[in-house]
Design brief:
Elements lengths: L14 E3 L13 E5 L14 E6 L13 E5 L4 E5 L17 E2 L5 E7 L3 E9 L2 E9 L4 E3 L16 E4 L6 H9 L4 E2 L2 E2 L8 E4 L9 H6 L9 H6 L3 H5 L4 E4 L11 H12 L3 E5 L3 H5 L6 E3 L11 E11 L2 H9 L9 E11 L2 E4 L3 E7 L17 E9 L2 E6 L13 H14 L5
Parallel strand pairs: 2-5, 3-10, 11-14, 11-15, 15-16, 16-23
Antiparallel strand pairs: 1-2, 3-7, 4-5, 4-6, 4-8, 8-9, 12-13, 17-20, 18-19, 18-21, 21-22, 22-23
Length: about 425
């Protein structure tokens, strides 16, 4: 069992809704009382108390759900809301809160269960609700199988909008993690996506009509980027999504459009989360110009000076991501780097970041790229970053998803994106 961060419990009484047992999503209703349990820093026995240990997973069964609340349900009481770690920057996870959260690897260890026998538990996080049952023996540990703590595909409450591009396919990453639509060789088949994913592309038939209806455009069609960003009801429609994704290689026609800028900035400021990759950097630069210093000058699109490198070494600077990579043995226990496949002839280079911009992944040097980076005063250059704007977050990465036939060869690269999009994206404080 993986070691957890510090867990602290405080006695509280609040109202919640009771839920039944069994794995999967759903639950019942009714007034309940919460009694917080003793938190554990590792999976270990506690005298005269029941302990449960396990790991919460997204529907793909491998991406952990970080910061998920773990609760024990009873007929008239909700017991065991432990909340632990404060080891990284993931949202509002604090050591003195009163709920039980999974750690950076999705693991949990909950003690203080007072009754033996079959008990019903609930995990809530990442837009998912997972219910499961376990047989408790006081003074013993009950380890919960991963099959019981894996969310059901297509069951999440979060919705995401993806603008298609020529060189990135973040919809594939979302499709794999959420198990949303038909996934073939790691790629999402456009037109099969579930209601958690809306495609912005301007072609074909849209299986999810809610967005097009909200925008007031032809029902059943995929909206164009222009319709999505500049329609009369654009902002209202955008605000229905937890995240909006701009793939590398999308249209740059609206980079300086005043309406598009106002809507995108208002969406993020109001609590939305925005992702852009590689060539889509102009939408970050023109809306949040102070957050990142791009390579070259600001006179034009001249930051695309990185060169093809199938094995670019990068550093993991985020503590949570690093802990998970080591726990999954995707990198060695004492390692803090992995290789990224920059498979395009050019890619966007960042020089530096402003105070308040988090550097998640960096590189020491670019063997295939401009010789004058890292710039003076820096020992590394940013590769993947995020920052807050108002109540929302902006996430930018120079490296991104690779074609489906390369998913297997670039497993760590793909797994890192899956982890970040579920757990870091939208948690930029």
């Amino acid at each position: 069992m993986k070691k957890l961060g510090l867990l602290v419990a405080i006695m509280t009484t609040v109202a919640f809704a009771a839920c039944g047992g069994g794995s999967g999503s759903g639950g019942g209703g009714g007034d309940t009382t919460e009694t917080a349990l003793e938190g554990l820093s590792a999976c270990q026995t506690v005298a005269s108390e029941g302990v449960i240990c396990g790991t919460a997973y997204a529907p793909d069964g491998q991406t952990p759900i970080v910061g998920a609340e773990v609760s024990l349900m009873a007929a008239s009481a909700m017991v065991a809301n432990l909340k632990g770690l404060s080891t990284d920057d993931l949202g509002a996870l604090t050591a003195d809160s009163t709920q039980c959260l999974t750690d950076d690897t999705g693991a949990f260890a909950c003690a203080g269960i007072a009754d033996s026998g079959s008990q019903d538990f609930q995990i809530v996080g990442g837009g998912f609700t997972i219910n499961f049952s376990a047989d408790i023996i006081l003074g013993n540990i009950t380890e919960i199988a991963g099959t019981d703590t894996t969310a059901t595909g297509g069951s999440g409450t979060y919705k995401y909008a993806v603008v298609l591009g020529s060189w990135d396919s973040i919809e594939d990453v979302l499709g794999r993690v959420l198990q949303c639509g038909t996934i073939t060789d790691g790629a999402l088949e456009i037109g099969t996506e579930c209601e958690n994913i809306e495609i912005i592309g301007g072609y074909g038939t849209n299986p999810n009509t809610a967005l097009t209806e909200a925008l007031g455009i032809d029902e059943g069609t995929y909206p164009t980027l222009n319709e999505f960003l500049t329609s009369e009801n654009s902002l209202t429609a955008m605000q229905t999504f937890r995240g909006i994704f701009f793939n590398c290689g999308l249209s740059e026609a609206l980079v300086e459009d005043a309406t598009a800028q106002a809507n995108l900035q208002a969406y993020v400021s109001g609590g939305g989360n925005f992702y852009a990759s590689d060539y889509a950097y102009l939408y970050v630069e023109n809306n949040w110009p102070e957050a990142i210093d791009w390579y070259g000058d600001d006179a034009g699109d001249n930051a695309r000076d990185g060169e093809m490198n199938p094995a670019q070494s990068v550093n993991v600077d985020d503590a949570g991501l690093l802990a998970w990579l080591r726990a999954e043995e995707l990198i060695a226990e004492d390692a803090s780097t992995f290789n990224v496949n920059f498979n395009l002839g050019s890619w966007v280079v960042m020089n530096d970041t402003a105070d308040g911009t988090n550097e998640i992944i960096t590189a020491d040097s670019l063997p295939n790229g401009p010789a004058d980076v890292p710039i003076a005063g820096r020992s590394t250059l940013p590769i993947t970053v995020d920052f807050s704007s108002g109540s929302g977050c902006v996430f930018y990465t120079s490296y991104h998803n690779e074609p489906a036939d390369e998913v297997g060869t670039d497993e760590v690269q793909s797994r890192v994106l899956e982890y970040l999009l579920l757990n870091q994206f939208g948690n930029c404080e």
